Amino acid sequence: MSNDNRIPYDPRQVEMEAQKLWDENKIFEVQPDQNKEKYYCLSMFPYPSGKLHMGHVRNYTLSEIIARYHKMRGKNVLHPIGYDAFGMPAENAAIKNKTAPAKWTYANMEEMSAQLKRLGFAYDWSREIKTCQPDYYRWEQWLFVRLFKEGLVYRKDAVVNWDPVDQTVLANEQVIDGKGWRSGAEVIRKTIPQWFLKITDYAEELLASLDNMPGWPDSVKTMQRNWIGKSKGLELDFEVSGFGAVSIYTTRPDTLYGVSYMAVAPEHPLAIQAALNNESLTAFLKQCSKEQSNEAAMATMEKKGMYSGFDAVHPLTNQKVPVWVANFVLMTYGTGAVMAVPGHDQRDYEFAQKYDLPITQVIDAEGDLSQSAIVEKGILINSADYDGLDFQGAFNAMAAHFEAQGTGRVQINYRLRDWGVSRQRYWGCPIPIIYCDDCGAVPVPEDQLPVVLPEDVAFDETGGSPIKKDPGFYQTTCPKCGKEATRETDTFDTFMESSWYYARYTCPNFNEGMLSEEADYWLPVDQYIGGIEHAILHLLYARFFHKVLRDQGLVKSDEPFNNLLTQGMVLKDGAKMSKSKGNTVDPQALIDRYGADTVRLFSMFAAPPEQSLEWSDEGVEGASRYLNRLWNQIHSFVARAGTDILVLPKNLNKEQKSLRLKVHQTIEKVTLDIGERHTFNTAIAAMMELTNALQKYNDTEISDLAVLQEGWQSLLLMISPFAPHMAQSLWQSMGHNDLLCEKTWPEIDKTALVQDEIDMAVQVNGKLRATITVAVNMSQNEVEGVALADANVQKFIDGKPIRKVIVVPKKIVNVVV
RNA sequence: GCCGGGGUGGCGGAAUUGGUAGACGCGCCGGAUUCAAAAUCCGGUUCCCUUGCGGGAGUGGGAGUUCGAUUCUCCCCCUCGGCACCA
Hints:
Elements lengths: L10 H15 L12 E6 L10 H19 L3 E3 L3 E2 L4 H10 L3 H18 L10 E2 L3 H17 L2 E11 L4 E3 L4 E2 L2 E2 L7 E10 L5 H7 L8 H11 L2 E10 L3 E7 L10 E4 L4 H7 L3 H11 L5 H6 L4 E9 L6 E7 L10 E4 L5 H10 L7 E2 L14 E2 L10 H15 L2 E6 L5 E2 L1 E2 L9 E4 L3 E4 L27 H4 E3 L6 E4 L3 E2 L8 H4 L13 H5 L2 E7 L5 H15 L9 E7 L2 E3 L2 E2 L10 H8 L1 H10 L7 E2 L5 H22 L12 H24 L2 H17 L5 H18 L4 H10 L23 E8 L2 E9 L4 H10 L1 H7 L6 E5 L3 E5 L1
Parallel strand pairs: 1-2, 1-26, 3-4, 12-14, 26-27, 28-30, 31-34
Antiparallel strand pairs: 5-6, 5-9, 7-8, 9-19, 10-11, 10-13, 10-18, 12-15, 13-14, 16-17, 20-25, 21-22, 21-24, 23-24, 28-29, 31-32, 33-34
The protein binds one RNA strand through α7, α10, β19, β20 and β29.
């Protein structure tokens, strides 16, 4: 193997040439083709935060490999890209740099597109979407108006974080330890009217469909099921003297005799009425309003409460039950009021102990009430007529009793809440509503859409939305009566844009409607890839939108994403890489130094896609070294073998057979790893092993070269999704003039996989003592004989009686003595 | 707190259906090549004992099922993601 006259590997040159070839041939631009099987491969589109970070590179390389692989399998592959361009960081940058959010966003998109192109990703750029453009978001407004008319949209009061100094609404992320991140002022809960989408109307279908989605990871489906949180319980009215009936919701009516108090949320009407003549309760409610309202804070904060002064009547015993106001009761779940059973609910138990409320046992189950609540279900005790019933029996009997009385009913509840889509921010899609003193909230008529967001704006220090202070934007006339009216100045949650972009990619330039007929050719997405952090919100909203689009007659399928691959986070110093944490790794420096192919290869080799990846710069070197070696090996092979196509000899010798076995075993493994398992790290490892085998092979005659040529060519085909530029260049060096990415995936030759002999492990009492080589067709008895004949095996049997011999064909023999 | 992941050599990871733990790569050690270096090539590399042959231990911790457990069950610890206005 001569290494003289080596052609040096120059990634920059090789990559430029390959990209030029692809561009000239427009090979990644696709149109519907009824004669080909379609394949829609999609990565979650990026927020244009500045430059690409390693999480992006990982995500896009994943979809890239899957897209190129399926193209080589003969499918019509759609692989689009775009930007989730609205969002808060643009406003922060605007305040910091005194530029308009639009300008900053467009500059970022330009920079990131250049980086994506430099990485050689096989996108159909003609379908690029930027969600901040009116020709995209107008259809979102259009859909909202449609849903408004159908009653799927409503307005109600909801809580926001209010910064009393900056006089502005803060995102949860902008509240740090209960204080505004800019002003440092103590943030308070404030209630303002906001728009909601009735996702709860679809709760049942969103839940039920999960049973029919085999292409999604179980973990994500479980998270979504738990998030939707369907439960069956009883809604019961407790009569409160001086107030009226208060409804509670419980999934454990069997514990009703154990109720020793009730608890209502601080925002509950009873709490508000009770506070009218009660100074300390007023102070308590005020204190509660300063507590963070997010669920994690609610769950971990100190449980506090105060007696409201009201008492309810127990619906079965007619005894007085005190009503407490408690900071841990959620106004947004159930009825905002709960019955408390300290004997059988741990949170109620701790609260009762703290405030010295009675704890009684009404369920007979394992546990010690002096230590903790007994939460297991069991037989009812101390429950009068209901004693002796089990959970289901008690549930049914109680339900029948209260339904007959008209004071209770069986109720299916969901933890899922309707989707609040109003944001009091500037850089988002304007909500197409006009407020008229006479006509109320009126949707903007279709022919007046889009409501365009003015882009030339300036921010002041407080971060308040410029359009809220811009009469040119909000002053308008009522579409119904023509009177002076005011435009809605809130914008949509950016999850709105990301809930349907996958569908718009199928017809991004369609001007006559939201989606064209092309949508049903491409949809649903065959493979969706993105961060696990989106397991619930984005993926649930997108599923909801798809069902809404279906019910609007815009798509025919029920679900948007057939297969989901959730990639793990790219971590740096143990935490999610994000601009706000300042722990990002800039892939550009790596591309400049090693080339795109190395960066792509390494990002796939470092870890399996679903696992989080702790980034380290070491190891990139290894990927680069591997590609260099491949480059040198193939050039050296061509120097020896030429570029003519060599014909495999009919009769292979032992070494040739063994090499072909390796080649076809690798094709089998890589095909499985890419196509089925999505374990690209092991696919690369297998290709490296094959490279080692081909490199070590000592060729002495022309037939050797034929076997090697088959091996190298197969390897180039298999590595081309990972390192497409180098693969293209080497493909040409091997004598081909065509585009490698349009070739078909290598075929497995089953005859090459046939083996005569295999290695088996021999254990004595479960410990490895020998390995033996046996003929494939040897019987179990013969294998046992060979195993027992081994000297080291005999040494450990040591004359002891053999109790049992287990032979697992082609794997292992275990001798038990 | 609740829901869902993860924990394997010095490091990233492999072991696909309960069957040889550590593939592949990084790093490190030794050698070849070189005036020298880089690059490249060859060999070694879980830990402990042993010149070697070989032996013992070992997959976060503890228990269990099994001829056999990284893999299954139970308990615990650590860690990451999500928790509805970050995207």
